[in-house]
Specification:
Elements: H1 2-12, E1 18-21, H2 28-38, E2 43-46
Parallel strand pairs: 1-2
Length: 52
């Protein structure tokens, strides 16, 4: 459901890039990252480091 919402939003805001965390352990974030890429969403995979 969330991926569908992201897809719809990014259809209207073409400059929007989604930042997906890796979600370790387990790697669920990497799976979501690949699925978003397959949907044509501009997405960036990031680690767990805090943003400064």
């Amino acid at each position: 459901m969330l991926r569908e919402a992201i897809r719809r939003v990014t259809e209207h805001y073409l400059e929007l890039t989604i930042w997906q965390t890796r979600s370790e352990p387990g790697g669920k974030g990497q799976v979501q990252y690949r699925e978003l890429l397959e949907q044509g969403v501009a997405v960036h995979l990031v680690g767990r480091r805090p943003i400064q």
